[in-house]
Amino acid sequence: MANLADIFITSILSGNIALTLILGMCPLIAISTNVKNAQGMGLAVIFVVTITGIINYPIYLLLQATGTERLSILVFIITIAATVQFLELFIEKVSPRMYNNFGLFLPLITVNCVVLAVSLFFVNRGYNFGQTAAFSFGASIGWALAIILLAAIREKMKNHSSVPRGLAGRGIVFVVLGILSLAFIGFTGLSFF
What we know:
By secondary structure, the protein is an all-alpha fold. It has one domain. Helices cover 72% and strands 0% of the residues. It has eight helices and no strands. It starts with a helix and ends in an 8-residue tail after the last helix.
């Protein structure tokens, strides 16, 4: 069984859920127009993914004990929706400006495949509670890192470079994502313990 540090580091770098597993692309591309929005969305994803992964683990054990694990996807989605609803209400109360910047994308975290994928991965990989928490936190940090890096590069390119006409807009974003993916795959095999 892999240790917690390896699971955590791998889920951020070589197993980055956005850059190597290519999950959560819609909000990654749409929100990464500036670093401030990317940071806010990254924090929201870190919170939702970590909390739902930790909550869904004992729920899955309960479903398994009662022989109803076939309902796990439905129950995971309900947990995710409730967590996102709480986060949406919280952000609307604390920072209306950030809430307005997110627009439709905040409620869409509910159906963001990253959030559900983390819960399905811990089931498929047979992680225990500690491994699930490490993976959930690491995967969400990895996604946040990806969106912040992409936003910083997009801001820099907008202000200091001329993109060929054929690549302008989202075309160059996909090129940048491809280069970032190659860089993160380069961390494969990295182990600390």
